[in-house]
Amino acid sequence: MVTNPKAPKAPPRIHHAAVVDPFVSDSRKLIQSKHVPEVPILRSLAALPGGETANLEDILNHRSGYPVKAVKERLNSLIRRKLITGCTCGCRGEFAITEAGKAALTAEDESREYRRVS
Ligand SMILES: [Zn+2]
């Protein structure tokens, strides 16, 4: 099979979180990175004014209720998949969404629209 290098590449998929209520104390210790929803993180970064970045504190405050370790792992996964840039080492972080991250959000919106109308 010959692949056309000009063919548009499918945008990366956004992982959907398994539903666990982080505010129920019994479930807190069960929360892993896979439970931290990615869409709200990507949306909050997409909403930043041009050139601005979010620091780790911003994201942890936004995701309050989720264990720090789980959120950091989720961020690292987004970084590995090139949907965001940033660093979870404990520095300022300077998280920002990438073009691939924006494309993934657009694809997400479109599939949601499709599910809604079909
Ligand atoms: Zn760092």
Describe this structure in a few short sentences:
Helix content is 44%, strand content 3%. The chain is mainly alpha-helical and 118 residues long.
CATH class reads Mainly Alpha
Strand order of the largest sheet: 1-2
CATH architecture: Orthogonal Bundle
Bound ions, cofactors and other small molecules, one mention each: zinc ion
As a percent range, the share of strand residues is under 5%
Task: Summarize the SSE layout with pairings.
Elements lengths: L24 H4 L9 H9 L9 H7 L5 H13 L3 E2 L10 E2 L1 H19 L1
Antiparallel strand pairs: 1-2
This protein binds zinc ion.
Which features would summarize this protein structure in a list?
single chain, 118 residues, mainly alpha, Arc Repressor Mutant, subunit A, two-stranded antiparallel sheet, 5 helices, 44% helix, 3% strand, globular, binds zinc ion
Describe the structure.
With 118 residues, the chain is mainly alpha-helical. It has one domain: Orthogonal Bundle (Arc Repressor Mutant, subunit A). Helices cover 44% and strands 3% of the residues. It is built from 5 helices and 2 strands. It has a two-stranded antiparallel sheet. The longest helix has 19 residues, at 99-117. Zinc ion (ZN) binds next to loops. Zinc ion binds next to loops.
